[in-house]
Design goal:
homodimer; alpha/beta; 8-stranded mixed β-sheet
Chain lengths: 331, 331
C-alpha cells in the first residue's frame, strides 16, 4: 500500500519537525544522548504514540515499556552484580560449609575462578543464591541486599553498584514516564535482588519488576506469618521465558522493549509482533574505556542473534561509545 | 503505653470530626454505604494514612490495597462465574469428546450436577478450563472470555455477569484510588479469565490482577510468536498461596485487604502482620433477597475461620443486608 507508506512518511516528517523544534527550543529530554539514529527513533516513537491526532496514537494505559536490567540499565561486568553479591555471601558463610571447597559452583567462588562461574550462567547464580539464602525470610533477604549495597564497591570503578547505572537510560525512563508510559524491568536477575532498590534508583516500584525467582512458603514464626525462601527454582526469566514472565505479570504486550543481549531477543520479538507502532532497541557495549566492549564472543551479555535480528528488522541500536555523552551519573 | 493510646484516640476523634464534617458537607465518597462501623472504619483509615501530619501517614507508593474477586467484588453464586463460563465451553465442545459423558468433572457439567462441581473447587474449575482451552493461545482465550461476557446472563438475575459487581465496592475502589491507593485483585480465579474485563469494569488494569494460572509456552505460529496455554497448573492463588502471589507480583505488603471467605484468611493475616495502621475487611453475605445469604456451611465462599479471626482481631465486617443501600449498579 504505497499510499499508506507515503502518509506515514509525511506524518514522520511532520513529527520530526516537531522533535527538532523541541530540541532547538532547548528542551532536550535526553541530554546525555548525542544526536544519533537511536535517539531520533526514540523521540519520533514517543511523539507518534502520544499525539492524539497521530495514526499511531496509543492510549496511556497501553503504553507499556519493558527494560532488561543487566547490561541495559546498569553494567554487568566483570560478572552480573548479583553474582558478586552471592560471592560475598558465600565467602562470609564458607567456614560453616567445608564441603564447598570441593563442590561447584562454590569451589569457583572460593578460588576466584570467574570463568567457571560465568559459564554457570543465571542458573549457577541462582544455585549460589539458594545455598546462601535458603531458610531466610523474604524480609531478611531484602535487608541483606540493602546492607550489601551500602558497603560493596565495583572492583574496577570503585563506586557503589547503584551508581553503576546508565545516566542516558535514567533519562530515557523519566522521559517515557513523563509521556504516560509505565516502565517495567524484565530481567534474568533475581526479582527479590532487584526490588529493594529499583524504586529509589530507577523510579520503578517493586510491582513493576519481573525477574527470576525461587519458591517461597508461608510459615508462622513467633506467631507472625513470614515467607520463607526455599531452595527450589520457581521461574527463570530469560530468553523464551521473558514473554511468559511479561504475560504473567503485565498481561499485555509492551509497545517498547529495551535489551542488550541474546537473552532479550524473544522479548523484543514478542514486542515487535504486536499491532501498531513499536520501538525495539538494543544497547551495544562498544566503550572499553568508559565501560566495557563486548558482543558475540562474550559469556556474559552475549549479543549475536539479537544483533542479527536488529539489523534485519531495522530495530534501533545504541552504540554506547558514540551515542552516549556520559555513561554513569556524575558524582 | 497508655500515653500513646490516648494520643491515638485523640487523633482518631479529630479525624472522625473531619470525616463527619466531610459527610455533612454532602461529599460522601461512599454513597451506597449506610452509616455503619464498617464504613466508619474505612473513612477513618483512609483519613489517617493520607494525612501527612498523622502518625499513621503512609506515602502513596506504599498504599497498596488488595481485593479478592469472587464474593468480594462480584457475586459468586450459584457457583463461581468462571465455572459457568467453563460449563458453557464444555457443552459447546461435548460432541467432539464422547469420553466426557463418563469422566468427572465433565460428567457433572453435562448432567448439570452443580453439587459435584462445587465440591471440585478451584482445582476442578481449572481442570475444566484446561480441557476446554489447552492448545489455545492467550489471545484466543481472551477473545473467548470477552465473547462469552457479551452474551451470557446470570441464571437468577438475568443480567450480564459484568453487571453482577457490587456498586458499594466500585465506590470503594474509586475512593481508595482517589486517595493515592493502587488497587489490586488477588483472586483464586483464573488470572486470564479476569484480565480481559477488570480494567473496564473495576478500573483495575491487567498488571494489577493476580490469580490462578496454567503454564504457557512460547511458540511460532505462521511466523509470529504466540503464547500457547498448556494443560498444566502453574499457580493456585488461594489460601496460604495468596501471600505468595502478592509477594511474587507486588513485592510489598498491602496496608488494606478485602475478602469474604476462608480463602482470604491468610491474605488478611499477611496484611495485618505489617507495621503501622492497617485495614482488614470481610464481606458477610447476609442478603438472601437482594443477593445471597451464606457463610460457614457453604461449599462456595465458606466463611468460618476468617470470621472467627475478624471477631478476635477487631477486623471490619460488612453486613451486606444492613450496610449496603444497593447491591448491583442500577441499570
Amino acid at each position: 500500500m504505497p499510499k499508506k507508506n507515503h502518509f506515514s512518511k509525511f506524518v514522520g516528517i511532520l513529527l520530526l519537525g516537531f522533535v527538532v523544534k523541541t530540541c532547538l527550543a532547548g528542551i532536550d529530554p535526553l541530554p546525555s544522548w548525542n544526536e544519533s539514529p537511536a535517539k531520533q527513533s526514540i523521540l519520533l516513537f514517543v511523539a507518534a504514540v502520544t499525539d492524539p491526532s497521530s495514526p499511531d496514537y496509543v492510549p496511556p494505559t497501553e503504553r507499556i515499556a519493558t527494560f532488561d536490567n543487566d547490561g541495559t540499565l546498569w553494567s554487568e561486568r566483570p560478572v552480573y552484580f548479583q553474582l558478586l553479591f552471592a560471592i560475598d555471601q558465600v565467602k562470609k558463610l564458607a567456614a560453616q560449609h567445608p564441603d564447598w571447597q570441593e563442590t561447584q559452583p562454590f569451589k569457583a567462588v572460593l578460588e576466584n575462578d570467574m570463568d567457571s562461574l560465568a559459564a554457570s550462567g543465571h542458573e549457577g547464580l541462582l544455585q549460589l543464591i539458594m545455598a546462601t539464602h535458603a531458610g531466610n525470610t523474604t524480609e531478611e533477604f531484602s535487608y541483606s541486599v540493602k546492607d550489601w549495597l551500602t558497603t560493596a564497591k565495583h572492583p574496577r570503578f570503585k563506586r557503589p553498584y547503584t551508581e553503576m547505572v546508565f545516566q542516558p537510560m535514567l533519562e530515557l525512563l523519566n522521559y517515557l514516564r513523563a509521556n504516560g508510559f509505565k516502565t517495567f524491568i524484565v530481567s534474568g536477575g533475581g526479582i527479590e535482588f532487584m526490588r529493594p532498590w529499583t524504586e529509589v534508583v530507577y523510579g520503578i516500584p517493586p510491582e513493576q519488576v519481573i525477574g527470576s525467582s525461587i519458591k517461597t512458603k508461608l510459615e508462622l514464626r513467633n506467631g507472625k506469618p513470614v515467607l520463607v525462601r526455599l531452595a527450589k527454582i520457581n521461574f527463570i526469566d530469560d530468553k523464551a521465558d521473558k514473554p511468559i514472565g511479561i504475560n504473567q505479570h503485565i498481561g499485555r504486550r509492551p509497545i517498547a522493549a529495551f535489551g542488550n543481549s541474546d537473552g532479550d531477543l524473544e522479548m523484543l520479538q514478542w514486542t515487535a509482533a504486536g499491532d501498531g507502532k513499536r520501538l525495539m532497541l538494543l544497547i551495544h557495549h562498544t566503550d572499553a574505556e568508559r565501560e566495557y566492549a563486548y558482543d558475540k564472543n562474550s559469556a556474559i551479555g552475549k549479543l549475536d542473534k539479537a544483533m542479527e535480528a536488529a539489523l534485519k528488522n531495522d530495530w534501533s541500536v545504541v552504540d554506547m561509545k558514540n551515542d552516549w555523552k556520559v555513561i554513569y551519573p556524575e558524582d
